[in-house]
C-alpha cells in the first residue's frame, strides 16, 4: 500500500508539473480545451505540428518494416548465393543483392531492428543516468563540482570519437556499442537536467516543501523530476537520432555491430568498393539511415516546440 501511494503521488506530480508548463504559454488553451487533461491537450498540439506528423509517419514506416521483417522478407539475412551475386534491384530482389549474393531487402530490414534497438536503448539509458547525475549535482551541491567536471571531461571529446575509443577498447559486441554510445551521450542529458533542476530548487513551492519537512527523495520525485521531463524528453529524441548515426559509423569502421548481425553501417562499408558497378549496395542502407535520423529529428522538433512554450514565444 505505501508503494502504491508513492506512485500515485508521483504520477499526480507529473501531471501537475506539466500543467504548470502549459499555463506558462498564453496560447496553450482555447475555451473548448478547458477541462481536458494535459495529456489530451499535448497530443492535440503535437498532431497539429507539421514536422511532428511527418516525422511520426516516417518513423512508423521504418518501425513497421523492422517488425514485419520476418514475414515480408525471406527471413535469412545471411543466406549467401554465389549464383546471385551483384543482382540489381528487381521484383525478386527489391534492393538487389550484394557481393555474397545476400538479399539486400532482407538485410536492410533486419538492420533496422538492430539500429532502432541500439538507438532506443542508448537514448533511454542516457536519459535515465543523465537525469540521476544532473539532479544529484543540482540538489546535493557538494557533489556538483565533482560530477560536472567528470561530465565536462567526457564532453571535451567529440561524441563519436569517445564512442570509437570505448568500443575499440571493449571489443566488437552489441553491449560494447551500447556502453560506448551511452557513455558519450550521458553528459548531454545530465547538463540539461542539471540546468532545469538548479532553477527549480530555488522556487517557492520547493522551499515550502522543505519547510513542511518533506524528504529530499519526496521533493525530487514530486517537484524536481516532473518539471525536468519536458527538456529531457526532447533531448532523448535527439540522442536517439544521433545514436543511430553513431552506430552506423562504428559499424562502417568495423568496430560496431559484429557479424552475423546485419547493420546499415556494415552494409554501406561492404558496398563502398562496388559503388560504381553495384551502386544499390550503398544506396538503400544509406537511405534507411537518412530517413530514420530525419524522422526522429522531426519528432524532436515537434516535441521541443510543444513542450517548451518559452522557446516558442521567443521564436
Automatic annotation (TrEMBL):
SUPFAM superfamilies on file: MetI-like
* Entry GO terms, CC: plasma membrane
Function, as annotated, reads: Probably part of an ABC transporter complex that could be involved in peptide import. Probably responsible for the translocation of the substrate across the membrane.
Task: Specify the species.
Answer: Brucella ceti str. Cudo
Domain named ABC transmembrane type-1 is located at 116-300
The record's keywords, sorted A to Z, are:
Cell membrane, Membrane, Peptide transport, Protein transport, Transmembrane, Transmembrane helix, Transport
Cell location? Cell inner membrane; Cell membrane
Broad class of where this protein is predominantly found: membrane
Q: Which CDD domains match?
A: TM_PBP2
Q: Does the keyword Transmembrane apply?
A: yes
InterPro entries the UniProt entry points to:
BP-dependent_transpt_permease, MetI-like, MetI-like_sf, OppC_N
Q: What is this protein called?
A: Peptide ABC transporter permease
Q: Which PROSITE patterns match?
A: ABC_TM1
Q: Does the keyword Transmembrane helix apply?
A: yes
Query: What membrane topology is given?
Result: Multi-pass membrane protein
